[in-house]
Design a protein that fits this description.
heterotrimer, A alpha/beta (490), B mainly alpha (353), C mainly alpha (290), A: Rossmann fold, Rossmann fold, 3 domains, six-stranded mixed beta sheet, 17 helices, C: 290 residues, mainly alpha, ABC transporter involved in vitamin B12 uptake, BtuC
Amino acid sequence: MMMRKPFIEVVEIYKKFGDVIALNGVSLEIYPGEILAVLGENGSGKSTLAKILYGLYFPDKGYIKVDDVVTVFSSPAEAKNRGIFLVSQRPQLVDDMSVLENVALFLNTSPSRDLKKKLEVTLRDLGMAIDVDRGVYTLSYTEKQFIDLVKALITQPRLLIVDEAATYLPRELKLKFLDIIKKFAARGGSVMYITHKILEAIEMGDRFIVLRKGDVVGVFEKGVDVTTIRRAMFGSEEYLTTFKRSPKKITHESFALSVENLIVFDEHGKPSVNDVSLNVRSGELISIVGIAGNGQKELGEAIAGLRKAARGRIMLNDNEITHAPASERIKKGLIYVPEDPFREGVAMGLTVAENVKLFSQSKVSRELLDALIKKLDVNPSNPFINVAKLSGGNIQKVSLARLLLTTPKVVVAYSPTRMLDERSKTLTLSILQRLAESGSAVLLLSEDIEEVLHISTRLGVMVSGKIVRFFETPDLESCREDIEKVMVHA
Amino acid sequence: MPKVAIVKRELSKIATALAKVLVILLGLLLAATLTSIATGNTLKLISITLFQSFTNLNVFVYISTLLPTAVGLSLAFSANAWNLGAEGQLVFGAIGATFIALFTPLGRQEIIAPIAALIFASFLGALWALPAALLKMFRGINEALTTLLMNFIAYYVANYLVKGPWRGRTVYGYPTTDMIPIESRIPTAPGYSFSWYVVVACIAIAVLLYLFLYRTRVGIALRALGSSIHFVELSGLSSKKLFLIAFLISGALAGFAGGVKILVYHKKLVEGPIVGGGYGFTSIMVSWLGGLNPLFVIPASYYTAALYILSFGLQIGSAAVGDALSSTIVGFLLALILLADFLTRYRIVIRFR
Amino acid sequence: MLVEVVKIISDPLVVALVLWVLGDIFVERSGVINLALDGIITAAIATAFVSTQNFGYLISLLITVTITLAFASLFMIFINILHAYHVLTGLALNILFYGLSALIGLRFQQSPSITTLNLNSLTLASISILTVALTWLILYKTSIGTAIRACGFNPRAAEHSGVKVWRIRFLASVIGYIAVGIGSYIYATVYRGGWSQYTGRGYGFLAITLAMASTWHPLLSYPITLAFGYLYTSIYSLQLLYGIPPDVINAIPYIASITIVTIVYSTPLHKKLATPRALGEVYFREERAA
């Protein structure tokens, strides 16, 4: 295989955002028929690389060589013309349009009857029964993810970049997804498979490249072991990711947070949370996990007050807060940690200090500010620079400061570690755990079974807006397979 | 084929300010040259006019209107409240001040009269901003468009008043009210039609609002609203209340400016478009020129005020042409501000491979 | 009743308004708040007037559309390349275009009026109905239309699908402003037949409001514009009949616009219709997102 010419060569790509160097001269090549696994922690620059190869970001330095032509892409349209397509973790479809219209948009044709037939046939061949006239907003996350992949495959691309697109899917669906990709490579297509999960990479990859803080720190051939890759990803540092679940010593009998028969509609009037009831006592840490788009996010936002509850009740320490505005709930001691730090976690236009000031009802002294920054390991530590200058992970840490200013009665967090590297992930989860130990009721909503498996005392699985089953055992790890099964089949 | 892309850049605050000043100066030079070509006057004459415009004390006439309005708007825009209705709110402020001065007994009380008139002017300005804010909050209707339309309605309300029920008994058919009583007027600087009291008050308002926006929690939250509504809610502050506050303060300050125009300048209510004079629209750009920071809005309003004087200096020959020319130049300079904004925040990368 | 309807459908002012509204729908469907419309209409009317006076009707139409497109391109440069706030750009350029309109008119006009162009009712009605149909076809049945709407819904996802957002927005404005140019031409030559400084100012904002009230749907915009046109053309008879002061009459269109929008947005109807969610959003491709 190595005798052949690579389909694409990436040469010395450099990209900086503000003061953060995202890619520091990265070079690699991908051959036809090869799956190149790109590994790295969150914030290592792997998504930036994917976006540069797809023309979404413009590199500061460096170039790309496709078919011996030296170029850089200044738009996805150009990359697409070269046969390159990116499937990312969040499906990039226009929700307000139908499946057919989305595919037409991608193929640059009108949404005609011929196209409709062609698409229906393709979907049937892949064993998917989706009405192509349906609005995309009615689809589930997995359906959207598959549509995104299918529409790319219709064009017979030459390089498929898969950026954590299957990472959070449960085993069974993941296998189906990965199978399509493997077949694509077997037919001679190139694949760049981006993930932060070593085992997944080893399963998929023919060759491996490890990124750390924007640098290529390791290139490995097939047969490499986990330890070698781990050492490259994390350097000399080793992080303990195992958590000791504190034995249940719940002192309070009453519930700090209780949700009764909650129904929530999404933007398009579809019930995204459908008759959910759950209770969290003070000192408890409960997780709800499910495939993305099954209502965890909406449940969290409804409890936080960012989304209207259509029916049902939400109680905070026996006070009804179902219709109280978000600000009111925060004041009453319910803290919500959102997933997206850029748009919800912080105000990008303000300084770190100003952001922290807003989290606190009382005055924040300089000492307190410095202590928080130290505790959260925010880098750079100057509180008077704009948050926009920080990296994504550090911005998320600033957002977490809201947890450390008071002892909240209830904490609700939705995928709080999605943006974080291992070290910050551990830090965040231990903050949540410590809060539970000191008497807060913690509800952790997630799409990532890894995130929740080791720290929860109780775990619920959410499918299509309903919590279909609770697991409660000291050793949730042993139920992993069962949990994943429930996630896929309601 | 060369590849072109636009990427962000992070300039320091000083570099940003310098770049803006530079673009503006260049713009002035360009405008002067164009004017000299269009009017056939020498560049030297135009330059003298330009210099005189910036050193003329009459700038304070315009600053008294532009500064409070623009400071209020910078508050609103910081909070992502697109109040484009300052013109109408200003007209309503003028109506309010006239009402107190002419039709209430307060109008003849020294000192109390102008204060009461200004308070009521601010109140009416805020009131005129209220419907758009409520429609946005409860119906999700784009506030930029509603406030824009409200301006025209305000014009016609003022026109109706001065031609109808409020028409003066001593004005011989002109569409104005009677002059307001001496007691309710604010004393002007000798020989000029502005008041030092008002100028000082306007600067004080700018400083106070700066402190509010940058030093208080509510103020910081208002600025955060420009980045994210959810963030503000999740910090325990009501985004709706903040939005309303921003809207009402900007309306009140536009109303205040309208009141000032009556008490200092017109001394009677005149037709809507004359009271408003487009200052409400210009203030929008002034606040932007000042980077939405009340302190920087002070020099921005000075610069714009000088432009007004310049445009009158240019009205040589026909008034119609002069008006058209000055509108063109003002529009051109405003567009330059947007260009300067681009240059300080983005850069264009061209690569040949 | 039927006579009334025919009269409204073929009223040159209403036809111009329909074209302006449709032109605005193209631009705003691509996600751009189109406040510069008012200035461009004002300048286009002045252009149509003076070029008719100087070169005759046919060449005037060409010139008007060309100049309109030139102004629209300037607007689009600010939006797409300079990434300026849509609302601010609109306001700043309006001031510029008002000034230019007066300069154009004052410099080139020969006399204050021209003989109006005589188009029969059928022609006028067909122009507006055809444009409505064409707008609908382009927006909903072609690949360009799909791309335009995608940019208005979610420019990020559109870009990801291989749409060059800036180019589509440019294209949308070109198509839209052709309609705007023709509308302004009809206003100047068929309806008004005269020009004074700033003739036509305010109609742009009216068109923007009507487009919003029809949730930017071309088929819905037609009846709404007609209803408005009826109101607008009949209020002057109200004045004569009941002696309502002219300033009150003049304010009615604006009050009516706000009322119509409020009514439409208070009914569940507007939620059913997919409106351009990204309207007014400054789209920067490299924006950071989770």
